[in-house]
Amino acid sequence: MTSTLDIIIAGGGRVGFQTAEILADHGHDVTIIERDERMVSEIADQWMATVIQGDATNPDIIAQAGIERADVVAALTGETGLNLAVCLAAAELTPDIRTVARIDRTGGEAYTRFVDAVVFPERAGSRVAANEILGSDVQTLADVTGTLDIMLIRVADGAPAAGKPLSDVRFPEGTLVVSDDNGERIARADTTLRPGSRYVIAVEPNVVDEVLNLMRG
């Protein structure tokens, strides 16, 4: 990533907190908004970053979180309606902000009329949520293959798999690389994972993070 982003995450539960950790580890400035006082205390004990207690749909609270200078707001609570409300409120206050909402039901793509991206964290993990927040080169086709995720991933410079033929990459069991560079043909053992090129990969949910580590670093 070439620049530091200012990111607000609404929801400090497992998904929100783990996503925040990933983003912070990559050097981004992250602020968490969480309603539950006990959870706020737990986050504050584990992580030296800004944590605000309150309702992220409240304009005063998201103003306190710095919405006017934020690049992205990601609503990652367990409530779909609340997440959409947070994103809509943020977009009203900061029209150019990127909005990402956690969706807990099928048919979530319909919500992209209201937000820039949706995530299904129960299936894809916090790393995919982080990639969506950054607007990065990972896309997931959800709810078309049962629990299997079909992902379109651009290989990052310096990633462990970058520049290597498939035969030399130790993908975890439950992974199938489907296409070669940019979907021109079916992948073969000698297909080389070139930095900057995109590949279609079928992934079982329990190995998504491992595959993304290999392809994205």
UniProtKB/TrEMBL annotation:
It comes from the Archaea. Residues 136-217 form the RCK C-terminal domain. GO terms for molecular function: potassium ion transmembrane transporter activity. The keyword Protein biosynthesis does not apply. Keywords: Ion transport, NAD, Potassium, Potassium transport, Transport. Residues 4-119 form the RCK N-terminal domain. GO terms for cellular component: plasma membrane. Pfam families: TrkA_C, TrkA_N. Part of a potassium transport system. This is TrkA family potassium uptake protein.
